[in-house]
């Protein structure tokens, strides 16, 4: 049996209207959120990582390493928390229709995934507290036979999400506006394997300056980072 190759798709196209600048370029803990998302997917075991940009424009490199800060893993350790030993491959694609919402960015990202990949893990750049162990658990579920796997936090489905290639046409067809894979997941609940990841991080969104300040405080240890 051929080994399964799973790509990561990072949606980093948003304009960050409430933050006043594109989210991909917002620095959290000394590193841009785009780069943190790449590290999340890379350390989680996906390769290549496709980064979908938008508001930053087609000529801005959001993939460059900054400050060398790793994505936090909530203090979790174990044999499945380290990065794999493959050379990092990052594919950056620009979505000219990014302002229409997440649906178009999802379509652009999945279209850029190399043909040899059997599935993709979808992640959002504005959730910097998600830990790489969540990605590894989704990959383990896929290896065990799941064609759709969703990370859950205290039983609540959030991100990231793994979807096998055979479902991508319907995922893209159902995605519209600022909605990504959610319509597909709701339409095919019987396919979804829920994977508890509440001990690996948390899916807090960075939508406002207040969100950013709170997450910075968590990363700095000024307030407890729950496991």
Describe this entry's structure for a reader.
The chain is of the alpha/beta class and 227 residues long. It has one domain: Spore Coat Polysaccharide Biosynthesis Protein SpsA, Chain A (Alpha-Beta Complex), CATH 3.90.550.10. Helices cover 26% and strands 21% of the residues. The strands form 2 sheets. Strands 5-4-1-6-8-7-9 form a 7-stranded mixed β-sheet, with helices on both faces. A two-stranded antiparallel ribbon has the order 2-3. It is globular. The termini are far apart.
Question: What's the SSE blueprint?
Answer:
Elements: E1 6-12, E2 27-28, E3 31-32, H1 33-44, E4 49-53, E5 90-94, H2 102-111, E6 119-124, H3 132-143, E7 148-153, E8 156-164, H4 168-174, H5 182-187, E9 192-196, H6 209-220
Parallel strand pairs: 1-4, 1-6, 4-5, 7-9
Antiparallel strand pairs: 2-3, 6-8, 7-8
Helix pairs in contact: 1-3, 2-4
Number of strands: 9
Major sheet attributes: 7 strands, mixed
Distance between the termini: 37 Å
CATH superfamily: Spore Coat Polysaccharide Biosynthesis Protein SpsA, Chain A
Mean pLDDT: 87
At the first level of CATH, the class is Alpha Beta
Strand order of the largest sheet: 5-4-1-6-8-7-9
What count of domains describes the coordinates? Answer: 1
Q: What class, by secondary structure content?
A: alpha/beta
Percent helix range: 25-40%
Computed over alpha carbons, the radius of gyration is 16 Å
Unreliable runs, pLDDT <50, ≥5 residues?
67-86, 223-227
- Portion in strands: 15-25%
Number of helices: 6
N-to-C SSE series? Answer: EEEHEEHEHEEHHEH
Overall geometry comes to globular
Counting copies of identical and different chains, the oligomeric state is single chain
CATH topology-level name = Spore Coat Polysaccharide Biosynthesis Protein SpsA, Chain A
Q: Any guess at the CATH architecture? A: Alpha-Beta Complex
């Amino acid at each position: 049996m051929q080994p399964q190759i799973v790509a990561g798709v990072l949606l980093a196209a948003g304009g960050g209207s409430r933050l006043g600048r594109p989210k991909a370029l917002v620095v959290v803990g000394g590193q841009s959120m785009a780069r943190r998302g790449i590290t999340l997917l890379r350390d989680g075991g996906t390769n290549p990582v496709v980064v979908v940009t938008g508001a930053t424009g087609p000529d801005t490199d959001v993939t460059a390493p900054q400050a060398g800060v790793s994505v936090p893993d909530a203090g979790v350790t174990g044999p499945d928390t380290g990065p794999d030993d493959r050379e990092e491959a990052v594919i950056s694609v620009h979505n000219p229709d990014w302002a229409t919402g997440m649906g178009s960015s999802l379509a652009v990202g999945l279209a850029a995934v190399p043909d040899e990949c059997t599935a993709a893990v979808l992640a959002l750049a504005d959730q910097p507290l998600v830990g790489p162990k969540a990605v590894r658990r989704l990959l383990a579920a896929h290896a065990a036979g799941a064609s759709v796997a969703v990370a859950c936090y205290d039983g609540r489905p959030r991100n990231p999400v793994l979807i096998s290639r055979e479902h991508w046409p319907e995922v893209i067809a159902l995605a519209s506006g600022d909605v990504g894979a959610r319509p597909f997941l709701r339409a095919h609940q019987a396919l979804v394997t829920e994977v508890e990841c509440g001990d690996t991080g948390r899916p807090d969104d960075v939508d406002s300056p207040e969100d950013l300040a709170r997450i910075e405080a968590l990363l700095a240890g000024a307030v407890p980072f729950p496991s």
